[in-house]
Amino acid sequence: MKNASITALDTAIQETKTQVQEELNILAAEKERWNKELKESVKIPEVVLFSARRPKHNTPTSGQTVIFTEIILNKGDAYNKENGVFTAPYTGVYTFTVQFCVNPDKNIDFAFVANDKPFKITRIYRHSKSKFSCYSFDAMTIVDKNENVKIKIISSTSSGNTLHENDSNYWNTFSGRFIQAI
Asked: Deepest in the core among 5, 37, 55, 78, taking most CB within 10 A?
């Protein structure tokens, strides 16, 4: 009789151990999931910066997004050279710079635009009839995660090339940098 009781007790103990081990495995998996979520929620943003040059069109038109087709640097892969749009990977403070080299007697009105809302509008008008000039403009703003930032033409001289570019000396550029998460 003792053998049957001991065997039944051994079986019960073994079943309990198996159940406890299954519960421990579930808890361990849950702990791993929570740790991963916690790490993601406090993830320190990586470096995000880009620089692009060579506008697709040297005579941009009103309403057009300026597409800079040659990427110089794109850490974080946030700038898209196909559509000229920077997509913010993090919510935070960003700074953007654009340089346009404008031909004589040409003008260009453009805006730094985030999600189709201008946050800085600038105008370049060249009075000189003999030389082009390059102008740089900066803008700093808060951008939410997944918002788009681009350079949009408000108006431009419509005849002839407005922008001047020379491979070795004069570049039209658009660049941006993530400064700080908020």
From this structure: 55
Please check whether residue 171 is in contact with residue 106, taking contact to mean a CB–CB distance below 8 angstroms. no
pTM greater than the 0.90 cutoff:
no
**DSSP structure class, residue 107:** E
* Cα(118)–Cα(126) distance, integer angstroms: 23
Q: Is 18 helix (H, G, I), strand (E, B) or coil?
A: helix
Distances (CA, A) of 20 to 15, 86, 98: 9, 52, 63
CB 69 within 8 Å of CB 39: no
What residue has token string 């805006």? Answer: 111
Q: What whole-number distance in Å separates Cα of residue 104 and Cα of residue 133?
A: 8
State how beta strands 49-55 and 68-75 pair.
Answer: antiparallel
Largest CA distance in the chain: 114
- Counting beta carbons within 10 angstroms of the beta carbon of residue 50, is it exposed (0 to 12), middle (13 to 18) or buried (19 or more)? buried
Please state, in angstroms and rounded to a whole number, the distance separating the CA atoms of residues 54 and 70: 6
pLDDT tens digit string along 74-122? Answer: 999 999 999 999 999 999 999 999 999 988 888 888 899 998 898 887 7
Nearest to 174 by CA among 120, 119, 97: 97
Q: Please tell me the total number of residues recorded for the chain in this structure.
A: 182
